[in-house]
Design brief:
- The protein has nine helices and no strands.
- By secondary structure, the protein is mostly helical.
Length: 209
């Protein structure tokens, strides 16, 4: 194994230790009451080592979102590469399946007091997802100057959908959450008045499989 690979593995291991330590501490008290020394001690690493990886405890917390998005990209988009017939609904369903799989981590991240920092961190990852998504599916026909509005809307919407879904104990299946996301983005609530969100709910514009 090369020196660089050993170093990368060591960095990844320390990063994971710090993330796990923070999650454990969040089960005991809010982020505002947690000190960086406590995180380092719980992870059994030095305080300087903490700062080699993260500037703040908030950045450590949001690294969970970054890592989760990276894993989702690898798990979901590699399927798209292998099967070009995968439609939007199937793709989003797999995303929600991944969110549910890592629900406990997301739950603790969303309890951070500074929601602006959380949304900003989430926005970066949503933007990355949109760029990857647009490579496989035609992007919405929207003027360039309004793309930031769309990105802000998508980020805020994803945050609130996930927050509500987690609070409801993932009551709705991933397929239903994917359907809901598409209906909200495409048509708002106008076509949902007489609909019931169940396992068999389908949106009329779904691409044929």
């Amino acid at each position: 194994m090369t020196t660089k690979k050993k170093q990368d593995r060591r960095i990844g291991r320390t990063r994971k230790l710090l993330q796990d330590a923070l999650i454990q501490l969040l089960k005991e008290k809010p982020l505002s009451k947690i000190q960086i020394k406590q995180i380092a001690d719980r992870a059994n690493v030095s305080r300087p080592s903490f700062y080699q990886h993260f500037e703040t405890k908030e950045r450590l917390l949001f690294s969970l979102i970054d890592d989760l998005f990276e894993r989702i990209h690898e798990n979901v988009f590699e399927t798209v590469e292998a099967d070009k017939s995968v439609d939007v609904h199937t793709l989003l369903t797999r995303f929600y399946q991944q969110w549910k799989l890592h629900g406990e981590e997301i739950q603790w991240v969303m309890q951070v007091e500074n929601k602006d920092l959380l949304i900003a961190s989430l926005r970066v990852n949503v933007q990355s997802f949109k760029q990857r998504f647009d490579q496989h599916f035609p992007p919405l026909d929207i003027a360039q100057e309004y793309e930031d509005y769309l990105l802000d809307f998508s980020t805020g919407g994803l945050y609130m959908l996930l927050k509500r879904w987690i609070e409801r104990g993932f009551k709705e299946p991933s397929e239903t959450m994917a359907t809901l996301s598409i209906m909200l983005l495409n048509n708002g609530f106008s076509r949902m008045q007489a609909e019931s969100l169940g396992d068999d709910l389908l949106f009329s514009e779904r691409d044929p499989r």
